[in-house]
Amino acid sequence: MSLVTAIFDIAIALVQLVFGVALALFSITVAINILNRSTKDINEFEELRKRNLAVGVYVAGILIAVGNVVGQAVSGVSKAVVPGAFNLPALIGGLVQLFIGLPLAIVVITWAQNRVYSWLVKAASKLPKVEIEKFNIQDELKNGNLAVALVLFGTFVAISLVISQGVSFLSEPIASAIRTLLG
Predict the structure, then answer these.
(1) Residue 112, exposed/middle/buried by CB under 10 A (0-12, 13-18, 19+)?
(2) What is the pTM assigned to this prediction?
């Protein structure tokens, strides 16, 4: 291996790192903005300023879940730029993987939050002296209910693990299909 090749390979690694960080920041920003709209009764940043640990755990769960899914997609994009070659079909496949994984993660996390709410209401309705009409996840988080936040956190992480495995290999068949179509 020549010195020029080694320097080029290191440059490719740095480009992959910068690209991965940029995609992660973009994805997390998009996810937080979309999920912030689904919790209209909570100003997450104001609650964090008040040191509301429950909201902190809730937001951390979302960040970890999105990061987990996006991490798999970033690895798909990184396969496009390997030492000694640039693979356009792999780049397109990785980007498709990212743009499937991120919305899928957001939709499923939002859905899961609603399912957890339904489950908690159903469980609470079986308890004596519990007014389920007054139970609201957003209110519980605002009031610092760490137990609810931990249930949501666990749900988000578990779902993201499954989604990330589901999207982890999308880039390869997509790249193969593109190569076939391009002949």
Answers:
(1) middle
(2) 0.74
